[in-house]
Amino acid sequence: MMRKQRDLTTDRPHEIEPVSRRSLIAASGGLAGSLIAGQAFGESLADVPPREVGADLGARSERSKFVKIGRIPEAGPGKRNVDPSDAINSKVPLHKLFGSITPTDLHYERSHSGAPDLDPAKHRLLLHGMARKQLVFSVDDLQSMPSMSRAAFIECTGNGWENWHKADENLTVQNTHGLVSTNEWTGVPLKFLVDLVGKDKNSTWMLAEGGDAAGVARSIPLTDEILNEAFVAYGQNGEPLRPAHGFPMRLVMPGFEGNLNIKWLRRLKFGDQPWMTRWETARYTQLHADGKATQFQLRMDTNSVIASPSGTMTIKPGYQRITGLAWSGHGSITRVEVSTDGAKTWMNAQLNRPALPKAQVRFQMDWVWDGKPTNIVSRSTDDKGNVQPTRKSFIAAVGTNALFHYNAQQTWSIDKNGKVRNVLD
Amino acid sequence: MMRKQRDLTTDRPHEIEPVSRRSLIAASGGLAGSLIAGQAFGESLADVPPREVGADLGARSERSKFVKIGRIPEAGPGKRNVDPSDAINSKVPLHKLFGSITPTDLHYERSHSGAPDLDPAKHRLLLHGMARKQLVFSVDDLQSMPSMSRAAFIECTGNGWENWHKADENLTVQNTHGLVSTNEWTGVPLKFLVDLVGKDKNSTWMLAEGGDAAGVARSIPLTDEILNEAFVAYGQNGEPLRPAHGFPMRLVMPGFEGNLNIKWLRRLKFGDQPWMTRWETARYTQLHADGKATQFQLRMDTNSVIASPSGTMTIKPGYQRITGLAWSGHGSITRVEVSTDGAKTWMNAQLNRPALPKAQVRFQMDWVWDGKPTNIVSRSTDDKGNVQPTRKSFIAAVGTNALFHYNAQQTWSIDKNGKVRNVLD
Prior knowledge:
Distance between the termini of chain A: 24 Å
Radius of gyration of chain A: 23 Å
Largest interface: A-B, 137 and 138 residues
Shape of chain A: globular
Number of helices of chain A: 8
Structural class of chain A: alpha+beta
Strand content of chain A: 25-35%
Number of strands of chain A: 24
Oligomer: homodimer
Helix content of chain A: 10-25%
Largest sheet of chain A: 5 strands, mixed
């Protein structure tokens, strides 16, 4: 049943695998055969339900009453489905989504003192410190400046923490990987603001502080990459930011730890060294096997996960569509390989186009399951040559004292009954 | 005040205009000068409101209570803000949006008998007619097939009809151009389905029929372009289609009339000639000045509109950010020019990247208004060389009997008090 798939990682936008070849595969016992054998198609209009009268047109299009889709609140690793007042994050239902954009209201949420709904008429952003001027901007000021839009993933540095230490076979992909999302963000380039206040050239660090009660504040190194790519966003997926995602303004730091994308942004201070806030001493410091720690490990590494089939699903023998998401803080995903025999052999999955840098990209592959127990797993490669590590090599390198930046390959086991389970392999 | 802007229409993704040059402009009396002169910035943290405690994390992120944003229902040209039960369409607030993606719940809506909320467990899609097999597919069947995702604009063929005949100076850009939107759609390539049923090679037309009470049905020519680009979508912006947009499945026809993107799709029939449904005889036929009519004028032409400043807004002398959207059913937008002196001289606006084919693209340009009455206008050019026509040349070519495919340049006048008005120029 295994076959080599063509490498479709070309640069053409919206590349889809030529269908004629797929149809041949399908017609020869793959897709069409399985579908028709398994699902008793009808063949006439009598099999199609009658047409229906509809509801009035409104100011907004709500979801179908038949669509049940939502995030799940958590209070940390292993503390799932908690009371919302105890929650510190809320995870995306990756297995129920399509394409690469995360629906605005389902973008993952992580906060340290809830999500304030700030009054945009009163909100201000202060730029100060080592600069020629210090200035305070309103939301209207920002929206009158040159803007940019960019699809970018934001990922909690704790994404994947569920699988760091022990296997819970009842986890879904929402539990294991639900702290990453991709939206189209719109805002003002950081470089524009930096030039407006005239940052001192000796200032190599910036403090970004949020307007929530916790006052999350992080020191950010002003590398060329960050100066060229970071921006202060006021829009997501075409509309104003939602309160949970930083309304009325947040920092967006494509490719870097979620907690650096400071929400409810109230000030940017320029300096020549990090501020060593409690967010970079007590938290967000990576503890290694030997007891030493790494501070400012800021970039999110190359990652991928199969979203379907995934944990707690049940599949039937025959044709399966394997699909998932890949992303890298280093740049663009250039390849996702999938193994359906427990990492013994690998095939290139199809990547949906365009595969934008520092954004999630959808991958997919067709597969015919022979009904025998097996393990499925994906691994991604980015355009800087980084390859997603196995769990063994990841643990060997990082140890088990750490809590952040887990990007090991995710294995799903399938038993003889088609039940899919989370395993550590 | 007028100056030539650099042509930034390169192929690099996420191209933004180099900031250093802009900052120089700003510092030399443009942006920063106007802002600081006009808006009394604060200069210290005392000017920034205190931090706030937030709400619990939830299953969804709702909009801010401070954000008032919605569509407006209409009953046809000149029949605005009607009772929803009389509405035949509902228009997007283009002047309140950012970037290129339209928020899912604000995507424009046009229907002929309301929006049914069909049960996806019961819904079926029949493929029949001139083909080797006829097959009926469920939603699950479709979702197990190879998928593609693509950002595409969909535009009602009546978009712009408000300005065809007479000037109403009180129109907003939502009134004049609110029947176009861009979402990331996910679904199954039409070609895959066509090959699955084994379409007869003599079949050059396809009938697509919707499951609403009106049973909107259109004949679609099976050109190579359409066979390669059309798809049956079940997802929009990452989630299942919303009922107003065709849940559980619709046809997406990038670049072609909105009404061809059949919602609540229930069958595709293959034939060798058009069916001449009432949707292509009584409606959606273009009546010319000489009384003759064009049927199957299906492609949407190159278009653009300035969304800010736009009708009913009031601006102040000094720095202005001009921004809007451009799109073409022929392919990619390669250039948007803006005139701030009533079409006497033109400058290239900056195009946000990536400028995807058959998707809306954001353009922007900075401008310092000298306080004198003037007209502002945009015109787009696509990669097939089509240039958006002036209203005069458009009317000269098409006449005033028609109702569809209006794509003339939109002029906004600005009076000495900064009041912006819709004019026909």
